[in-house]
Amino acid sequence: MWLKTLIYHVSTRSSPNGLIQPNDQADCLSIRSEVAPEIFEGNCEGDASLLLLNDGTGNFTDATPAFIDPLECDHGIDIADLDNDGDLDIVIARREGQQNAILINDGSGNFTDETPARFPVMVDTSNEVEVGDFDGDGDIDLVFGTGDPNIGDVGANIYLENDGTGVFTDATAASGLPGTIFSTTDIESGDVDGDADLDLVIGNWGEANQLLRNTVLP
Fold first, then answer.
1. What SS3 state is found at 187?
2. Kind and range of the H or E element at 162?
């Protein structure tokens, strides 16, 4: 599906101790029927992720689900209607060999971890996740950016295809994502070539960045 890889820039990122540092992420979403945005903040290294509900005036209340474990390393998050029921769900990219997760919204801001029923097993070091309808079938698919050579984890990036109900299958092999091993720290999508499908810009740590052109539409 992503037929052509264009290398357009080379960048490196390091820290004082030479290790990749956690880059926790926050995202805003409207998880209830109200228009006021809420916040889900992903944390790592012993701090639990947080779900903050907005009262409509900018005052937030901690509504973090009880199942959120402070030992989980939630490094990247994104939000989308993953199960096509009209509300926004949460997808989490986790590091340190932990399973990536999907949290399903009941429409009132109550989330259930439905990972075992909806995701394949994924225990790579995942740094980032990007959502989008990458195959043009009207539902939301996922791309995970993985790898951390400092700890010996150099797994390839992962493409998950949605069956339309929020159940995801690993379709990496057929997608055309590069087989070369990278340590990907950021992924963004958009129609960069004007052909009405979503292309990928992939930011890598210590490797050449990539522009991947999507050829799902003629």
1. strand
2. strand 158-162
Element (H, E) at 63: none
Tell me, yes or no, if the pTM score tops 0.85.
no
Write out the two tokens for 194.
Answer: 């004007």
pLDDT for the residue 35? 41
Dmax over CA atoms of the chain, in Å, equals 48
Residue 17, classified by CB atoms within 10 Å of its CB into exposed (0-12), middle (13-18) or buried (19+), is: exposed
Would you call 184 exposed, middle or buried from its count of C-beta atoms within 10 A (0-12, 13-18, 19+)? buried
Predicted confidence (pLDDT) per residue in 25-78, tens digit: 444 444 434 444 445 444 455 556 777 777 788 888 887 776 666 556 677 889
Cβ-proximal residues to 87 (8 Å cutoff; 6+ apart), any chain = 31, 32, 81, 105, 106, 107
Is residue 4 within 8 A of residue 213, CB to CB? The reply is: yes
Q: Show the tokens assigned to 148.
A: 């951390």
Name residues of the chain where pLDDT drops below 50: 3-38, 40-43
Residue type, 20: I
